[in-house]
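writing this on my phone so excuse typos. first protein, seq and then structure
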Amino acid sequence: MSATRVLTGIPASPGIVVGRARVVSDFGDLQATFRLLYTDRERQAEVRRFKEAVEQAQADLSRLRDRVAAEFPEHTHLLELHLLILTDQMLHDEPLRLIREENLNAEWALHRAYERVRELFSRIEDPYIRGRIQDVESVYRRLMGILIGQSPRRLIPTGDKVILVARDLSPAETTQMAGSGVVGFITERGGRTSHTAILAQSFEIPAVVGVDNAIKEIAPGEELILDGLSGRIILNPDQGVLERYRRRQAEFAAFREEVTTNAAEPATTPDGFATRVMANIELPEEVHLVGRYGADGVGLYRTEFLFLRLRHLPTEEELFEDYRKVVASLAPRLVTIRTLDIGGDKFLHRNDYVPEMNPALGLRAIRFCLRERDIFRRQLRAILRASAYGRVRVMFPLISSVQEVREAKALIEEVKGELRREGHPFDEEMPVGAMIEVPAAVTLCQMLAPEVDFFSIGTNDLIQYALAIDRGNKQVAAMYQPLHPAVLRMVLQVVTAAGVSGVPVAMCGEMAGDPLHLPILLGLGVAELSMNPLAIPVIKRVIRSITLAEAQAMASRVLEMVSVEEINDFANLFLKERFPEIYRFGSALAGI
């Protein structure tokens, strides 16, 4: 028997499983051949061949979508997205142009167009949006496979307790796992926010992604343990290791059942402090997760995706339909819609923006919207119209001045006047909020408070800007510390200033969904938290088990500490002693 070995990756879907590896073929043989075309007849033939490939891919995806719709209707949007990508300007029109104008054969034209899309996505700062390149790549693979005559991979295994090992898996392939013998999967690529990972979480299939050289390191049929809590893969485990992990597997299953069963209960501390625990979503089809995991509403509805998945700027009606679906489905729960947090670098179908050296500090979010007022106005009209179907509030991202808020509010008032004249119903009192994501907004929060109905602290950006840390840069990523003394003092400053003006404060960054941070945040006075839906049952469990007085005492002690190491040690010790099961499993279940 071979020696036990350990591989590590990114835990993408929680759970522990034991099984035999099935290594599925890589896409390395999807090589595009280069050939120049010399005659009109050749060009016409290649155009026809490319269009036929698109039609076949559309037919294949439509059949798969219909099968998925019968059992998992909430996930059909992922396949519909792939159908949209098939007709996208960059992956459809551009290859046709390259065939007609640059005399390239269909395979090489498709390859060239895809490489351009990939390069554009690589410049996008937002990890959620950047991660969508996997959907584009999935469509590219499907089309290229048709063009070179390669059949799609078949993943449905024979036998039980199969762990798939692949370079990557598309959302379409992942849907095939539900109800099959697959108990988990490992990929060399991907991240926690990919659609493949989201599907795995929904199907409760444990997964570890980003495992370097998994295909080479794992032999077909090899026994292994997949630990979707820690991201560890144990190959050829001995009996002692197997028994230890099977105990851990049973303990996690019991913990998961217990916290999710009580997820719908109110998030109120034992001494009566009522909080609101909300969900972050980015697609209308994620609404089912809000109810499934006990969210009190939506604290962050990211609205960028529709702008990126269409060939054109979305119309008011397209935006309205997306927003209406979410708002109506969740009524009477509150839905917080963030206006576009997007810049010219993300409009892949437009060429009138100069590439920026540092998009994070450039023309994005509220700055972009106030410059591109037609786009902003269209979105505000759609949001206001959707407010007639439930409870809606709107918030502006990346605010750094009072003037930005005033200009955005003035535009809302203009839009309200238009809608009244046109006879469209809307909520006349729709609350308006500012996101606190940059140090300037923190220092100005006393001046901002009279202008808005609520604040929402976006910790992902706030930590990055406050500490001058790019967490995507491996050389400094470890310095990205949510419990840094400066970050905690900024949170306290916002809560204190807002309290004077009677403005409620929410938090919607990743920090809000980590049970390690929760007691300190409660103690600082944050009463509304929004997070990955998976995190909600764990966070509610902690809230229902700790008094506000305890949390305030913790916060007071932490504010006296001068180093992030001391604060982290203190928070970890408290969680370990007070909530041992959550210390062991909570962060993994929360998707942290």
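second protein below, same order as before
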Amino acid sequence: MRKIYISACLLGALLLTNCHDELDKTNPNFVTTENYFKTAGELQLATNSIYSVIASNNLVAREWFFTHVLRSPDYASGGAQLEAPRAQILNGGTTPDNGLLNAIWSNLYIVIHRANTVIANASNVTDNATLRDATVAEAQFLRAWAYYELVNFFGAVPLYTEPVAAVDAFKPRTAVADIYKLIEADLKAAQTGLPATRSGDNLGRVTSGAATFLLGKSYMQQGVAMYPQAKTELTKLVGRYSLVSNYSDNFREETEYNAESIWEVGFQGRSDNGYNWGAEGNGATAARASVRNQEINPISWRNLIPSNEYLNEFETTAKGSPKTDPRLDYSVYFPVKGDKLASAADLGIGITGDQFGPASNRQDMTEALQGGAGTSIINGTPIKVSWEKYTNLYKSAEGFQPAGINTRVMRYAEVLLLLAEIENEQGNQTAALGYLNQLRNRPSVMMPTYPNALYPASTKEQVFAAIRHENQVERGGEEGRDFDVFRWLKQGKIANPFKTYTFNPARDFVLPIPQDEISRNPQLGSGGIDRQNPNY
């Protein structure tokens, strides 16, 4: 057998030597960038592949959601079952080899690479200029979104604006200001190139409104000096979107793509009750579910629960408010105990214990049914509660059920909160309170308007306290609120809100650059910025 092997190797070498010219050819049936991007339809299919990555397990369906909320003061551990890499981020001890960081870093760069491929090949398309240009605008938005996430998670990152064509075509880290310049340029182009609305099969694709929102938020993240530019953009959305009457409609499957939604990533529950654990699911046509319901579901994994800080932020009758903020009950499951005695009522907050499941099989939510050992303290009293927001227990009693609830990445409520912050910063306190009161006047909320006994508004500082409060009770547990918290910390407007670790301002504003990137990118630190963030 050894002689046959050697003979085969020699034959192969001989064929390569004598037939090199014949072998150095491209298979005409093989799809390449040179022979594929000829029509606008092909360009749009390439754009679809960008959305596929965004909705994958490594981004919005799981790891992107986790990375955001683990850095938010709204979450606590549901118990010892929380996996070590996730607990590491929650507790402020993140190391460069953390698997979540590598997942979101790598997949955000896949988004960027695919967007770059669409943008770079658009000039080859001549059959439908309207669709071609709209598709390019879509890719520009998605590239901007990926860089926005990267720069807020990691600070300075490598900047790629062309498809990577060689295995060694690495880039060094680029200054944060230059990353934002690309984000702004992409979003301005997307504003003019994207349609204002979507319908039918195109629901979930980005719009000019999403580009306007992200441009305004990008200005705000760069500091108070850019608040005027942010105001210009965000004001364009006033009247274009509106708050839905029922607060819970923002987090349920049947009320997706509503008047409040600016951009959401679509998911669909699977008939086999399974989940797409792979990088991009189980094939191009397979239903794509989100595992979020599973992670926070009180009768399932319950890996994360509402933090004490979040729970005790709400206005309640126990604190002297005329009523308890209904958003607390909409967002959190409170247990029933004894003979229908609502344990929440024991806290003096005027909330009864909850039931869950389909109308035909409603069940009491008890402490015993809730998984994990994590227990909360409300008004000084221990109680076991769980997230209700973004779970599908309002219609299901399944213990394991990845769900089809879309993730609302951007919604109009955030526009109002951001505009309130800008107006207050510019000395327009009355206008700021007007934006906040729109949220409180939502029919399903109807909380006392600002100013009130608990939240006076005689000074800029008092109005900001109301803004910070309203941001947490309105958007608590949602992705992107962590970026607001870090912005306020940088501006010195709030004290350290994290109770699971001591926040280190010389390190913790950003996450560490993933070790995988440091190991494979020899150019990472060659542009004048260290390859790793300080103190990691």
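Confidence is low (pLDDT under 50) at residues 1-21. thats all i got for now
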